[in-house]
């Protein structure tokens, strides 16, 4: 029984193009602008100075203001995660369409950009089903565990020079530990659905996440050993703006650790090629088989939001974070001024650092999306074998090498500069070769045909 | 279900009240230093009591729930609350470690084991030699001792100067003053790992190919 869709419009109307482009630029600009303005201003020190709090202020007033500030920042960050995951869901479907020689969503707005908003409306309007034999309480609660595990990472994720909700001294350690709540949520959702597919999905996911936390943790030790701190901002400040000053190129083991971390994080986020917990072809939809409506949406929101989280962590640890080439963090500190509200130049540098960090992270997000549509899913035994037989020993090797390397750098500081230059030059050569290979492949299929009529 | 839940919340509140009263008594008992002043009740205290209540309620749910999965969720609450209390005591590293080890490791392992067993609801108690009477006897014998210890010990109470990072000092202590216990603990863990591998691996017959290869 074919559905009679209306025929595709010949041309997208001009006003639709204008509205869509405005939304594509406006929505990210709005949320990132809110992050830029709110995170430095809603800090305890600034609030104290602005509201004239001193030792004589009632602790109740003060603490209530702090709690309100924290709630405001939390609201902002959850919205950031939601908007990002919506936008990346659209982007991913478009990329998948390009890679698989099809069109992808192209009806809701120009380029189909509004499809994620349409999806959200659809999800909210759907019935929230609970299977008859399921454990209703836990079934309903499970998405919240996953959401909390995802949202808590934003407490320490940096966005720019002074743009983070807070800079915990145990930042990266904290990030690795709150992901545990996601595992608990997935396990509970799998079990409480009372469906064998969901249970298998939950089991696989837990086994996978616990296993891959070990190489990920060991890989994280490498930049921590190089920077001598666990705080996210401290890790970025220990690096430099130019690529040869990044941790990834300053130490050969760190480059290996970057790949290990990225692979492990992909596995922890249940992304292809490690999407065994959700393997649609094997397990219906894994641990969220029985979910519908908005609870289903929460799971997927966290899954896509995790792309940002894992890319941001990789950028923070290995790729220089928000460091602007040619400008040190201390120089930005110096232009802040002594006033409660920082000087205009400071805001400018912060905005630039936000742009740098976002650009790097989006490049990595793009890599994550590419991988999903290029690599096939691996088997369970291959997944476990990769983790325990290859990644864990290599990560251990990287850690030991780094410890000796740091001793060597202490004796000969120019060692890092030489390695950084050599490895970065190698990376540039590889990128050029990659570009050439892509060009040859495009020529082999008689040119890349961009058919703009169906956009 | 809900009536039970209210009962547990009430019980948890009672326990927290008991602890609070005991704390005040400890303060009155002259065990605190002379310059120690109990400040006014602030929002921070309220949040602390909230976390304490959560911890106790979770522990109660773990102990009294008939369903093991609910026990595990109660354990999650209790462990998270304990982590929050560590954060209150200016122990940031310890709080995060609590989250990582107990929720990321122990609790997930428990959930894993529980979900692979069937008939988890309505657990049959196989050991009935010590029933309610035994439990009450145990309670009656331990609570006075604990109360006496709490009241008689000269607690070293001090307000932290400022909320500061602890990671560096913990690392230095582990590798200087407490090096031997630290390494011994590592050895114990290594022995556990080897034991787990020995128990978990399959016995291979001489003529069978190894299924884990290939």
TrEMBL record, chain A:
UniProt-listed GO biological process terms: aerobic respiration
Cellular component GO terms, alphabetical: plasma membrane
EC number: 7.1.1.-
Keyword NAD attributed: yes
Primary location recorded for the protein, binned into one broad class: membrane
Reaction catalyzed: a quinone + NADH + 5 H(+)(in) = a quinol + NAD(+) + 4 H(+)(out)
Lipid bilayer topology: Multi-pass membrane protein
Function statement: NDH-1 shuttles electrons from NADH, via FMN and iron-sulfur (Fe-S) centers, to quinones in the respiratory chain. The immediate electron acceptor for the enzyme in this species is believed to be ubiquinone. Couples the redox reaction to proton translocation (for every two electrons transferred, four hydrogen ions are translocated across the cytoplasmic membrane), and thus conserves the redox energy in a proton gradient. This subunit may bind ubiquinone.
Domain of life: Bacteria
Keywords noted in UniProt: Cell membrane, Membrane, NAD, Quinone, Translocase, Transmembrane, Transmembrane helix, Ubiquinone
Gene Ontology MF, one: oxidoreductase activity, acting on NAD(P)H, quinone or similar compound as acceptor
Subunit structure: NDH-1 is composed of 14 different subunits. Subunits NuoA, H, J, K, L, M, N constitute the membrane sector of the complex.
Subcellular compartments: Cell membrane; Membrane
Membrane spanning stretches: 15-38, 64-88, 108-125, 137-159, 171-192, 212-236, 248-267, 296-320, 355-375, 387-405, 417-435
PANTHER family xrefs: NADH DEHYDROGENASE SUBUNIT 1, NADH-UBIQUINONE OXIDOREDUCTASE CHAIN 1
Organism (species): Anaeromyxobacter diazotrophicus
Protein name: NADH-quinone oxidoreductase subunit H
Family according to the record: Belongs to the complex I subunit 1 family.
PROSITE patterns: COMPLEX1_ND1_2
UniProtKB/TrEMBL annotation, chain B:
Similarity annotation: Belongs to the complex I subunit 6 family.
Catalysis performed (reactions): a quinone + NADH + 5 H(+)(in) = a quinol + NAD(+) + 4 H(+)(out)
GO molecular function terms attached to this record: NADH dehydrogenase (ubiquinone) activity; quinone binding
Principal location: membrane
EC top class named in words: translocase
UniProt xrefs under PANTHER family: NADH-UBIQUINONE OXIDOREDUCTASE CHAIN 6
One Pfam family cited in the UniProt record for this chain: Oxidored_q3
This enzyme's EC code(s): 7.1.1.-
Protein's name according to its UniProt entry: NADH-quinone oxidoreductase subunit J
Membrane topology, record value: Multi-pass membrane protein
Compartment(s) where it occurs, according to its Swiss-Prot or TrEMBL record: Cell membrane
Gene3D superfamilies: NADH-ubiquinone/plastoquinone oxidoreductase chain 6, subunit NuoJ
Coiled coil: none
GO cellular component, one term: plasma membrane
Protein's job: NDH-1 shuttles electrons from NADH, via FMN and iron-sulfur (Fe-S) centers, to quinones in the respiratory chain. Couples the redox reaction to proton translocation (for every two electrons transferred, four hydrogen ions are translocated across the cytoplasmic membrane), and thus conserves the redox energy in a proton gradient.
Keywords assigned: Cell membrane, Membrane, NAD, Quinone, Transmembrane, Transmembrane helix
Transmembrane feature ranges: 47-64, 69-89, 95-116, 128-158, 178-200
